[in-house]
Amino acid sequence: MANIKSAQKRIKVIQKKTARNKLIKDDVKKTIKAFEKALTNSDIDTAKEKLHAIEKKLRKAASKGIYHKAKASRKVSRLTKKLNRAE
């Protein structure tokens, strides 16, 4: 454990940010799994709704610095390709 007060504060701040990032990433992963489940069940309408939700969540996460902007775009692009192949 750090002895310096500012270092102790940084540890607390990092723990809060890590918890927030993990929560958001888990939410994105759950939505992606729901999207892929809809695709395997050939439920295109639900898959389109899930894709829209995923895109919104990823763009927001990228703007907050949780995901890199290019990584978020790449994920959306790959999922869109999957949807287009399934149609």
Describe the secondary structure blueprint for this structure.
Elements: H1 5-40, H2 44-64, H3 69-86
Helix pairs in contact: 1-2, 2-3
Q: Main β-sheet, in a few words?
A: none
The general outline is elongated
**Poorly predicted tracts of residues:** none
Rg, Å, rounded: 17 Å
Instruction: Give the topology string: H per helix, E per strand.
Output: HHH
Strand content: under 5%
Tally of helical segments: 3
- Quantity of strands, as a count: 0
Distance between termini? Answer: 55 Å
Q: What tags apply to this protein structure?
A:
87 residues; 0% strand; mainly alpha; elongated; 3 helices
How would you describe what is shown here?
The chain is an all-alpha fold. It has a domain at 43-87. It has helices spanning 5-40, 44-64, 69-86.
Structure, briefly:
With 87 residues, this protein is mainly α. Helix content is 86%, strand content 0%.
